[in-house]
Structures are given as structure tokens and as C-alpha cells.
């Protein structure tokens, strides 16, 4: 069983190392681009189709002109392409961002991945860039991260929550839910919607849906993806299903996360994560004050971390993509 990691969007598996893009475009990539655009032409408004077509044509022409060879992760090539759009073509940041979104949807189709995670990979070389335009663009692509409102960061609380659930609540619904959020890096709603049939625990895998806010999902090109799970997650989910999952009236769906009334609601799972994070903080040293210290109300509010939500855990998980890519 393999450890799960961030989606691999390198093209090294699509073409032999050192092979010029002209060769590849006439074979695998060219066929996927044609298939992708053909589907879009029948399913989306003309303006959307033309936007995607223009982006892919521009990217391919740039690759051929610059004799790009896909010897490494494609995000490095895309970063060079972005610089070309910003500086050589003198496009506005908003226009370049639109190009990246179109390119990200195509790559999600080509590699059968979640477009959001692909976009995080494409943004990773930009976020830490010295050029302010590139850095701004990278942050816009990723979106707002968890705001830190106290001296104890959300990451501190989440890491404390992870440790506490693994040690004190192993195999509970809250624990299994959290581990799947971390491994899949999927949004909370996609994890809530999981059914028992989506699990392949003997193979260490789970099928997770793609948010319907992305073009590749709405046109039916990428509606789900298969994710490798860590052994910790497999053990947690197996324990939950066998001992902790509430039995419900059998339906065709058979939801994974349940209450006695059926599939667990968003609010139920949200409350369970918030409550568990508060318990984790109280069991940790995060808010312990120095011996003999006298704290004002302001001091107490500064060291009192906010409860964690499922969305915070998702953002924490996706932020790890940037850490891995920028090592």
C-alpha cells in the first residue's frame, strides 16, 4: 500500500525524456486536446469554448516556438509560459489568470485529476516568486487561506487535532472524516458525499467526486478521481465502518458517514470537527501560560485559538502541495 501524495501532473509519463514537443503534440497530447475541445464545443457556450481553444493554441505554439521538452514537472513550463504572457504579450493579470484556469481544466482532463489541485500545482512556483506580479497571480489562483486571528495558528490547532484524534478517538466518525480530508485534499462536501461503494480499502484507494463548479465536471469529462490512501487512513476508515458507523435503512447509495437518520449533514460533521479541535487544544500545551504569569483579557484572547472547521482542514491539506512543490 502506498502513501498518498499530491497529484502527479508531470508529463514525464506521457513522453520519453528529451523528446521534443512537436512529436508529442502530434500523438498523445494532440489527441487529448482535440477530444477535450470537441466535447466542450458541444456542451458549453461558444465564448467558453473559444476561450479554452485560444489558451491551448497559445500554449502549444509557445511550447513549439521555444522547443520545450517535458523533462520535469509541467508547472515549471507553465510558469515560463505565464511570464511570457505577462511580459512578452503584456497581458493583464486577470487575463493571464483566465488562461491558467483554462489550461488547468485541460490538464485535469489529461491527467484525470481534481482541477483545484492541478491549479495549486501550477501556482506553486508563483507563490514564492520574487516578482510581485507572479506572486500576486499565484495567491489569486490559490485563493484566500485560513486567516490567523491569534498567536496560536490554525496549523498548530489542526496538527494538535490530528494527533489527538489518532491517540484518543481512533476510528471514530470524526477521525475517519479528518483522515480522508487530509489524504484526498478534497473539499468537505466531496468527502461527506462518499458512499461505501466508493471505498476499495484492500487496494488502499477511494473514489472521490470532483466539484461541479469546474468545466471538466459539468461536461462529464472528469467527474471523479481515484486517490491512494495512507495506511493510517485505511485503518481508521476500516475501524469506523466496522465498529462506529451507524446502521441506516439500506438504500442504493449507502452513505459512508451516517447518523441514525441517514447521511451525516454538513452541520453535523462541522460540529464534530469544531468540538474535537476544542478538546484537542484543551489536551495540549497550546494555551498553557507561563508559571506565575498574570494575563489580561486581551492576552487571553490572543492565545485562545479559534475552533477548526472542515474547510480549515481542507485548506491545511492543500497548502501541503505548495510545501512539497517548493522544496
UniProtKB/TrEMBL annotation:
The keyword Glycoprotein does not apply. Residues 279-294 have a biased composition (Polar residues). Residues 276-308 are annotated as: Disordered. It holds the Pfam family Phage_integrase. Keywords: DNA recombination, DNA-binding. The lineage of its organism: Archaea, Methanobacteriati, Methanobacteriota, Stenosarchaea group, Halobacteria. This is Site-specific recombinase XerD. It comes from Natronorubrum thiooxidans. GO terms for molecular function: DNA binding. One of its GO terms (biological process) is DNA integration. InterPro entries: DNA_brk_join_enz, Integrase-like_cat_sf, Integrase_catalytic, Integrase_recombinase_N. Residues 147-327 form the Tyr recombinase domain.
Amino acid at each position: 500500500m502506498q502513501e498518498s501524495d499530491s497529484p502527479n501532473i508531470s508529463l514525464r509519463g506521457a513522453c520519453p525524456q528529451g523528446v521534443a514537443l512537436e512529436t508529442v503534440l502530434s500523438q498523445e497530447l494532440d489527441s487529448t486536446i482535440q477530444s477535450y475541445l470537441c466535447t466542450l464545443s458541444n456542451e458549453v457556450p461558444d465564448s467558453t469554448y473559444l476561450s479554452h481553444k485560444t489558451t491551448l493554441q497559445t500554449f502549444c505554439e509557445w511550447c513549439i516556438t521555444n522547443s520545450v521538452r517535458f523533462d520535469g514537472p509541467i508547472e515549471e513550463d507553465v510558469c515560463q509560459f505565464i511570464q511570457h504572457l505577462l511580459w512578452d504579450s503584456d497581458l493583464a493579470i486577470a487575463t493571464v489568470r483566465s488562461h491558467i484556469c483554462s489550461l488547468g481544466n485541460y490538464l485535469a482532463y489529461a491527467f484525470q485529476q481534481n482541477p483545484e489541485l492541478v491549479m495549486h500545482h501550477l501556482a506553486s512556483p508563483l507563490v514564492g516568486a520574487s516578482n510581485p506580479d507572479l506572486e500576486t497571480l499565484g495567491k489569486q489562483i490559490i485563493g484566500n487561506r485560513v486567516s490567523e486571528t491569534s498567536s496560536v495558528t490554525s496549523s498548530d490547532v489542526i496538527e494538535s487535532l490530528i494527533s489527538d484524534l489518532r491517540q484518543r478517538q481512533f476510528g471514530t466518525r470524526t477521525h475517519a472524516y479528518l483522515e480522508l480530508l487530509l489524504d484526498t485534499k478534497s473539499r468537505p462536501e466531496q468527502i461527506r458525499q462518499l458512499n461505501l461503494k466508493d471505498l476499495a480499502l484492500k487496494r488502499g484507494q477511494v473514489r472521490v467526486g470532483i466539484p461541479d463548479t469546474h468545466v471538466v465536471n459539468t461536461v462529464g469529462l472528469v467527474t471523479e478521481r481515484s486517490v491512494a490512501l495512507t495506511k493510517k487512513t485505511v485503518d481508521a476508515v476500516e475501524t469506523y465502518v466496522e465498529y462506529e458507523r451507524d446502521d441506516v435503512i439500506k438504500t442504493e447509495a449507502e452513505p459512508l458517514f451516517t447518523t441514525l437518520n441517514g447521511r451525516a449533514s454538513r452541520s453535523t460533521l462541522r460540529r464534530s470537527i469544531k468540538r474535537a479541535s476544542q478538546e484537542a487544544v484543551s489536551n495540549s500545551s497550546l494555551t498553557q501560560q507561563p508559571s506565575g504569569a498574570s494575563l489580561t483579557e486581551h492576552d487571553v484572547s490572543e492565545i485562545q485559538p479559534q475552533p477548526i472547521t472542515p474547510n480549515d482542514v481542507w485548506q491545511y491539506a492543500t497548502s501541503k502541495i505548495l510545501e512539497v512543490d517548493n522544496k
